[in-house]
Amino acid sequence: MAAYITLLRPLNGLMSVIAVWIGALIAGAPFVPDISIIFGMVAVFLISGGGMAINDFFDVEIDKLNKPNRPLASGKISKRAALAYSGALFIIGNAAAYMISFDAFITAVVVSALLIAYAAYLKKTILIGNLIVSGLVGLTFVFGGIIIGDYLPVLPLALLAFLSNTAREIYKTVDDAMGDRRYNVNSLAIKIGVVRTRIIGNVFLIVAVIFSFVPYFLGLLGIMYMFFVLLADIIFLSAVIAPAKYSSKLIKVAMIIALIAFIAGAVKI
After folding, report:
1. pLDDT tens figures, 87-144
2. 79 in any annotated domain
3. Which of 43, 50, 135, 139 counts the most CB atoms within 10 A of its CB?
4. Which helix (H) or strand (E) holds 226?
5. What's 231's domain CATH number?
6. Measuring CA to CA, which residue among 192, 161, 139, 151 is closest to residue 255?
7. Cβ-contact 75, 68 below 8 angstroms
8. Mean pLDDT of all residues belonging to the chain
């Protein structure tokens, strides 16, 4: 059971759940989620887990080099079981989205298809796969607005999430270069080299830091947003100068703090 929980990466799923809630708050929902938002939270958690599982299904050989402790790479879960598990997560997640609205259901179906396409094909492309994953991270916030019926106020937060996660995805190609090179994954780090890849990642991250002030000045988020986002920005910028193996981890920590900033700003504390 523990291996199956690890396979769906519950921390990533929890971050997606919080992002949906934040998006709904920004769009005008009450602080306490109603049933439609709860269905949305369930949908993104399960679909996120399905995406993680199908990604490990396709990456099992690479993970034996890069991340040998993962459930499939270590042999704790078979490929067949992981595929069935992923399918079940996708089906139940999309069923939860269907209970919300037609728009939410279509969004969930498209996201599921993109996650499968990413794992099977797009991950091996240069930058396109990274941009799609980051777009899906931003879309998680927008999904909260879709549930409420007004996603426009959420777009600045979605753009912030897109920029910072793109930087993280780019840094991760540096971390995974050894396994990717052996299995002919055409990543950015392999195509143009580690130094140039880091420069591109740095550009996305610095733009994200600059843009992080926009939601406050647009009046979307309260003053406490600025307190937490400045802390997140410091960690984001530390990723620029940190060794490559720590950069993606620092960005993930900063993104968690940024979620706290969004919550604090959204509830006007």
Report:
1. 999 999 999 999 999 999 999 999 999 999 999 988 878 788 889 999 999 999 999 9
2. yes
3. 43
4. helix 223-241
5. 1.10.357.140
6. 161
7. no
8. 91
Sign of dihedral through CA atoms 67, 71, 76, 81? negative
* Residue 269 DSSP label: -
Does residue 2 form part of some domain?
Answer: no
* Tens-place pLDDT, residues 9-35: 999 999 999 999 999 999 999 999 999
| DSSP state at residue 126 | S
- Compute CA distances 12 → 3, 9, 99, whole Å: 16, 6, 23
Distances (CA, A) of 193 to 78, 163, 171, 249: 34, 21, 12, 20
Structure tokens at 29: 């929902």
**Cα–Cα dist 174/177, whole Å:** 5
Interatomic CA distance for residues 11 and 88, integer angstroms: 19
Nearest to 188 by CA among 126, 123, 125: 126
Domain count, the chain: 1
Angstrom distance (rounded) from CA 73 to CA 82: 11
Helix (H, G, I), strand (E, B) or coil at 73: coil
Distance in angstroms (rounded) separating the CA atoms of residues 137 and 127:
15
Tell me if 252 is assigned to some domain: yes
The pLDDT tens digits for 164-180 are: 999 998 888 887 665 55
Q: Which domain holds residue 148?
A: 7-266
pLDDT at position 82 is 93
Q: Smallest Cα–Cα separation from 196: which of 229, 173, 223, 219?
A: 173
263, amino acid identity: I
- Count of residues in the chain: 269
